Amino acid sequence: MVQSVFSNVASRYDLMNDAMSLYTHRLWKDDFVRHSLDPGRRGPLNVLDVAGGTGDIALRILDHAREKYADRETTVTMVDLNPEMLQEGRTRFKKTMYHNTPQIDFVVANAQELPEDTFPSDSADLYTIAFGIRNCTSIPDVLKSAYRVLKPGGVFACLEFSIPINPLFRRVYDDYSFSIIPLLGTILAGDRESYQYLVESIRKFPTQPEFAQMIRDAGFTTGEDKDGKGGAWRGLFGGIASIHTGVKV
Amino acid sequence: MSILARIPKSPTQLPRAALALQGRRHRSAPAYPGHIPLNAFENAFLAVGSGITALLNPRRGDMVAALGETTGQCALPGLLDKMLSSPEGRRVLKARPRVNTDTVSLPSLRALPANTFGNTYVSWLDRTGVTPDTRSQVHYINDPELAYVMQRYRECHDFYHTLFGFPVSVQYELALKVFEALHFGLPMAYMSALLGPLRVKSELKAMLLRDYVPWAMRVAAECKPLITVYWEERWEQDLGELKAELGAWDPPVEAKWGKKLTESDREAARRAKAAAAESAGDASV
């Protein structure tokens, strides 16, 4: 079902993201790459961008490493289950300077079972998954796969929707999600069901402490069970999105 | 009937329309297959959004349909009352007939004599390349009976084409929209009739205003309410006799026919493919 949802939304994905989040998803992704990841600070990285889709994170990683640290050796492998989304990513990258360079690569694969021949164990420095893990059927399998593929000292970073903590804000957010987003899907993309699915999948996702525990269960070391500095996650915009990080020791 | 007579004089004349737009927060269960319940705010949001999209991209048929449904709440109860006031209309509401190639047997209509309404309809379908299968489902009207009235209005559009002998080119569609706006009172029809001519070449616009609009205005006012007609009972009726009974008469100028549309061929190909896939599936079981 997830496959068909993303095949339907692939071509209008970026437009819909801009419309639904009123452009704020760009701010979240900028924050994620600049402050949580900061790629290139300690040398070139081998990055795995899973559920990379249309390439928002992959491009930001490469640009940040190049602009801030003059790093042209960082490589990103974009992984996605859906070939149409990956094709949109390829098209996006063709417009950049990374096209046909060893810095970017595209692979169709299932995040729950990354094949050992293409993704050997202990090979990646950084594993990122942005707005993708909630669509996976088995989150523990994704986390186990991530743990296998990361080198010791490697970082797991996940940017995902969460539920706002403030009850008043949560009420406004709920109204917006269930009223406006499916209607925006109907108007802009002619597809109500896919966006209804997206909104419901956010509600089904574990809470921030639960997800932090799942990351620890997979073997990662995280911060304490709190938001912000020293914590296992960092909330954005009052908790609409959260960045969870963990290190493989 | 004049437009002024349609404006309700007291709140008691409004109950059904008022019920149709509720200010609830929580989503109700669907009242019929394909129903997407919307509250008043969502209805307004979709009306504005679909209106803008339909203007910018008229090929988005789903947006045109959505605009009609979100703005139709005021006129539909009046149409329902007209149907309830006539014995034929009540029969339509009871049977709720639908018009598509599954419910209407086109081969049997082709076998009818040439002067009948049924044969004229199927000849019109063949000549224009239109198929009745491409009318969209109603989604955004909360009352199931009003939803049926909207569906019936949408599906009977081709019958009005047949009645007046109009092809599907833009000036005739606009003439029919003027007729429908004044006869049925639906806001969407008024919008199309007023905004549609903006996209049309000036000589066609002049032709429309000179030849068809005065005629459409008079026929709309004087003919029997077409929403009450049980068209499926009248396949064998002579077309001239039907027009006399309904009080409709032909426009003063003969219609000019253009190229055939591809939609009926495309729809037939799609059905053939679906049937082949199904039989292949059955064979493999």
From TrEMBL, chain A:
In what way does this protein cross or attach to the membrane?
Answer: Peripheral membrane protein
Query: Could you give one GO CC term from the UniProt record?
Result: extrinsic component of mitochondrial inner membrane
- Quick one: which residues bind S-adenosyl-L-methionine? T54, D80, N110, A111
Its localization reads: Mitochondrion inner membrane
Which pathway does the UniProt entry assign to this protein?
Answer: Cofactor biosynthesis; ubiquinone biosynthesis
Query: Which keywords does this Swiss-Prot/TrEMBL entry list?
Result: Membrane, Methyltransferase, Mitochondrion, Mitochondrion inner membrane, S-adenosyl-L-methionine, Transferase, Ubiquinone biosynthesis
Q: Which family does it belong to?
A: Belongs to the class I-like SAM-binding methyltransferase superfamily. MenG/UbiE family.
Quaternary structure, from the entry: Component of a multi-subunit COQ enzyme complex, composed of at least COQ3, COQ4, COQ5, COQ6, COQ7 and COQ9.
Role summary: Methyltransferase required for the conversion of 2-polyprenyl-6-methoxy-1,4-benzoquinol (DDMQH2) to 2-polyprenyl-3-methyl-6-methoxy-1,4-benzoquinol (DMQH2).
What this protein is called in its record is 2-methoxy-6-polyprenyl-1,4-benzoquinol methylase, mitochondrial
* Organism of this sequence: Dacryopinax primogenitus (strain DJM 731) (Brown rot fungus)
Gene from which the chain derives: COQ5
TrEMBL record, chain B:
Annotated localization: Mitochondrion inner membrane
Per UniProt, Zn(2+) binds at H157, D158, H161, E173
Q: Which reaction does it catalyse?
A: a 4-hydroxy-3-methoxy-5-(all-trans-polyprenyl)benzoate + H(+) = a 2-methoxy-6-(all-trans-polyprenyl)phenol + CO2
Q: By what name is this protein known?
A: 4-hydroxy-3-methoxy-5-polyprenylbenzoate decarboxylase
Molecular functions per Gene Ontology: 4-hydroxy-3-methoxy-5-polyprenylbenzoate decarboxylase activity; zinc ion binding
HAMAP family named in the record = Coq4 (MF_03111)
Q: Which organism is it from?
A: Dacryopinax primogenitus (strain DJM 731)
Family to which the UniProt record says this protein belongs: Belongs to the COQ4 family.
Which pathway or pathways does this protein act in? Cofactor biosynthesis; ubiquinone biosynthesis
Relate the protein's function as given in its record: Lyase that catalyzes the C1-decarboxylation of 4-hydroxy-3-methoxy-5-(all-trans-polyprenyl)benzoic acid into 2-methoxy-6-(all-trans-polyprenyl)phenol during ubiquinone biosynthesis.
Q: Name one GO cellular component term.
A: extrinsic component of mitochondrial inner membrane
Q: Which InterPro entries match?
A: Coq4, Coq4_euk
Q: What is its cofactor?
A: Zn(2+)
- Which domain of life does this protein belong to? Eukaryota
Write out the entry's keywords from A to Z.
Lyase, Membrane, Metal-binding, Mitochondrion, Mitochondrion inner membrane, Ubiquinone, Ubiquinone biosynthesis, Zinc
Please give one Pfam family short name. Coq4
